[in-house]
Every structure is written in structure tokens, then in C-alpha cells.
What does this fold into?
Amino acid sequence: MTDLEKCLRDFEGYLKKEKNASPNTLSSYLRDLRQFGQWLSTTADKELLQAKEDDISGYFRFLLASGKSQSTVSRSSATLRAYYTHLIEKKKLRENPAKQVELDRQKRKLPQILSSSEVELFLEQPDLREAKGIRDKAMLELLYATGIRVSELIGLDLSDVNLTVGFIHCHSGEKERVIPMYKVAVEALRDYLDHVRPAMVEEADEPALFVNTGGCRMSRQGFWKIVKGYREKAGIVKEITPHTLRHSFAAHLLVNGAELKDIQEMLGHADLSTTKIYTKVVQDRLTEVYRKAHPRA
It folds into this structure.
């Protein structure tokens, strides 16, 4: 086994046991670390333990020059910070060579969010006279109520919902989050479960919470089409994806006084720095409103 493979195996164990990383996070972090390790070996003839700040900043410049997106470089930066923090905790290093590296980057692209009125307009689009509309309303309300990812939404089972107390249990890898729902989302879910889902499922023991018209678990692609259709129906110019509702959920909570730590918990972010991006979103939004509304701005 090579030194790089040993490092990857060690990091994998740390992410699984100490950080309870989801499969997606695990895959991304290990891929990023492998790519950096290979580049470092080829370019500087160094192992991961020998990397310095100049090596890491050089690697980021290499990624950007190779046409990698800013989000890819930012993720690689987060991976290397996490890896070297782990080595410090194991007392294999004294300083984190990735901690002080400034990315040579363009202005970071902020997440797209909807205004409260745009959210209301969007959520009004499903036709509640139809079974499909009742199902879609429940899905959209639940997404905005909880801020869960689309993969988590379609992965929900009946057993993950507690309408009595208004909570859902969301599973992501080995981690589980308990997230509250507002009253309208609870009512929309109850309407779907009582009047629509029983007629949609083919098998009585189907565990999936949300099913398609064929009676099987809703797919990611199927839900994306639903979102796209209602955006067009609402006439909203902004691009809306399932993640847009997640971003809007977080930004609106922050505007209304929620603590970043609580938002991090509900979103399932491993690192608070990921959640802090919404502070910038809110600041930019308030600045825009101020400039448009203040008579002397």
C-alpha cells in the first residue's frame, strides 16, 4: 500500500467515525485529497505530510488554470483544511498548512434565493382539486418547511413522519436530524396521506412517503420536473431548483432571527462555515432593499 493510500484510508476512518460524514461527503473529500496527493507527488515530489502553504496555493492556482469551477476549488480547500486539522489532532503536524491559504478567486457566487412573496406565489401553484396537486403541494411545503435536500426528501419513508408533533426524521448517511414543520406543511402532508397516497401506491407495504403516479418512490428527476413546471406556471423569472427552496429556507430563517448554529443543525452542515454563506446572502439582500427604498440612498 502506498503512502497516499494509507493517508486516504486513515482520513476515511476519521470522517466515518469522528464526523459521521455522509456517503456523498466521504466520496468528495477522498477524491479531493487523492487528487491533491497525486498532484503534490508529481509536481513537488512530496507526500501529504510535507505540504506547505505555497504547495497548496499553487495547487489551487493549478485547478483554476485547468478550468475548474470556483465551487470545486472551494470544496478542495475545505477538504484540505479538514485533513490537516485531523493530522494536528493526531499530533502528526503542529500547524495547518491549508488554514491561511487565500484562494485566488473571483467573487464567490452566492446562492439564489426567493423573496417571501415569490415563495408564496410558487407554493400556491399546485391545483388542490387534483390528486397530483395535493401530493405536489405536500412535497413543496415540506421542502420549504425543513430545508432538506431533494435526495433526503425523496428518501423519506412513512415512518420518518410524525404529524402529531409536527416533526420529520431525516437520514443522511449515518447521521439523523429531527426537523420541525410549520402548521401549513403538516396540514398539506396530512391531506396527502389521508386522501391521495393510499390510491397512488401499488403495494400496501410501500415504505416511500412520496410516490409517483405509478405507485413507486418519487425520483430525483421526477421532482425536478415538478419544480420546473410550477416555476413556469408561476411566471417567476428566477431559476428555481429544489436547492433554491433549501437556500431560501435558510436565508429566511436568518432574517427572522434564527441562530446560525440552529440553521446549521437543520441543514445538516458538517461545518458552520458552510452555513455562514447565508449571512452574506442576507447582507446583500438588505443592502439592495436599502438602496432601492431609502430616499437618500
In short: The chain has a mean pLDDT of 87. The beta strands are 161-162, 167-172, 175-180. The longest helix spans residues 23-44. DSSP finds 14 helices and three strands in the chain.
